[in-house]
Amino acid sequence: MNSQENSSVTPLGAAAPLKRPGRPQPVTLRQVAEAAGVSTATVSLVVNKKKTARISDETRQRVRDAIRDLGYRPNAMAQTLVSGSSRFIGLVADAIATTPFAGQIIHGAQDEAWKHGYALLIANTEGNRELETDAIAMMLEYKVRGILYSTWFHRPTDIPASLKESDFVLVNCFSTEPGARAVVPDEVQGGRSATEILLKHGHRRIAFINATIPAPAKDGRLQGYREALEAEGIPFDAGLVLEAYPDQEGGYGATEELLKREATAVYCYNDRMAMGLYDGLREHGLSIPEDMAVVGFDNQEVIAAHVRPPLSTVALPHYELGAAGVRMLLGLEEAPAADPTKIHCPTVERNSVRALAPA
């Protein structure tokens, strides 16, 4: 027996073949060409949808049939090199797993992208600029169609230099730089709608507990509150506007001051603040909505739908922000020349408000 002929030892320097028993090998371009009776060049032209190529309709159909029958999957990266762009849209966010809202932005963007034949590449940077730069660079290498750049709360932002190398849309944030397209919540409309819930139930002495932290939401929600009162002919009373840290402790701590103002209803900057106020009012032996009607903002489901009574509120439109960002990126939705596109904040009425009893 010739030991050399029967040896299974791989010669030094040669790569041993990688064997994966039971795992089917991908169908090749050559196999499709053989099945269709054409050249690999013809298959490539059909796969890459080169309509100007001189290939008969009958041949194109034969190639498509072979692709279907064999289960051939085109090399997406190779197609990207040919076309100069891919079927990916990037999404870079400063917080995904740590916030209750970012998931809805992703969900909206993903659904809208998929509807138009794109998939989402997502990077969570946790505000780390170095990681953000790397994430954008990776997306540029993949030749994404464009990038959505999102922050977890509505605020102005600086546009990373590398982001400008791609088509981009800001989501839940905005920039004063010329040409920076953005989609943001309509904070003024949201504040107006929150106040209108109370007005339509007969309340006229309505307090507003605003945030202490400067933000577009703080200014916009106050403006909306004032506009709603003005539309009803109710003079603005600065004494009915309080400020507190925008969390549960802030709302709880504002209870004493609120009760001094003799309001019949209160609109809170957010749902967490309203949850704290619920506790404070109960400690004073007061009932919601009998003694005080309460409206929140955000529609944070883990709070608004589960406090007792369930909280009337205004929803931040995170799902629609993500979806609108994709539509704008793909040119399916026009962007205003200067200002961000504002997305409507819908009301969600529950049982924390009822009609004011006659005096």
Net shape: elongated
Helical content (DSSP H or I, runs of 4+) = 25-40%
**Helix/strand order, N-terminal first:** HHHHHEHEHEEEHEHEHHEHEHEHEE
- Remind me, CATH topology of the largest domain? Rossmann fold
Question: What can be said about the biggest beta sheet?
Answer: 6 strands, parallel
* First-to-last CA distance: 112 Å
- So what's the CATH class of the largest domain? Alpha Beta
Tell me the structural class.
alpha/beta
Percent range for β-strand residues:
15-25%
Under the CATH scheme, which architecture of the largest domain would be assigned?
Answer: 3-Layer(aba) Sandwich
Biased composition (Polar residues): 1-10
Region (Disordered): 1-24
Keywords: DNA-binding, Repressor, Transcription, Transcription regulation
Domain HTH lacI-type: 27-83
Tags for this model:
HTH_LacI; 3 domains; four-stranded parallel sheet; transcription; disordered N terminus; elongated; 14 helices; Rossmann fold; 12 strands; DNA binding; repressor; 434 Repressor (Amino-terminal Domain); six-stranded parallel sheet; 39% helix; 359 residues; alpha/beta
